[in-house]
User: Fold this.
Amino acid sequence: MTEVDTPRGAPIQRDVVRVWGPDALTFLQGQLSQDVDALGVHTSSWTFVLQPQGKVDAWARITRTAADEVLLDIDDGWGQALHDRLKRFLIRTKAELEVLDWPAVAVRGTGAPRGDVPDGVLRLAPPGGTVTGYDLLGPGAELPAEVEPMTAAQLRAHDVEHGVPAMGRELTEATIPAEIGDWIVDESVSFTKGCFVGQELTARIDSRGGNVPRHLRAIVLDAPVEEGTPVECDGPAATVTTAAVSDRHGPIALAFLGRAVLEGAEVTVGGVPGVVRVLPIS
Assistant:
């Protein structure tokens, strides 16, 4: 998928959980799917926090800010839940957790400016295997002057085009990481780091080529639909998890569809005709 060169951006809401202390990395190494020990200071990656059954509690970006400190930033409204989930396993461990309220900005496009950022602001890789640009996170984060503003709706449509999942929509306690796509497992899971919560099922599915009963797909529609609208198609019952209107494709939606529903299949969403597309939408 080719990204437009003109950089565009918008303020975004990201909750931040700070974890620090002598045992912080050791603790997180057993809780997160990412190899925390392998992260260098001032580098970041993506990680799942999983249930023992391998389903999703959280998907967050992890940034190592010091030898014994990391930041986990997650979709707005999910920081406290992430904090509480980690806190439950913090037993006889020399580590502390706190939730921070930091501003953030999303800048998208291959032409995104790469100038200096203010002290205390992090420039981080964006979510999504095919998304270009970056996020700015931290006190003082603001949209660069040379970046064209975009609305929150335009940014979410951009994310839908690229198959970027959202907590509480595509990512719920019923979601298995492989259902989102191979890219998110590749970016967020280490199969060489050793044990972590949810590892067994995740590794088993990966060894079978990511073969799961349903996959996240895009639907390009003839008219807008609402989230939660049923999708009439072959296979298991499905509903729209996210709906948007794209500048490039018009009305689009995300839904988990049975693996028998292939690229180009015709479906109906609340009476509206649509065509299934594999993500990202080209």
In short: The chain has two domains: 8-162, 213-282. The CA atoms of residues 157 and 216 lie 15 Å apart.
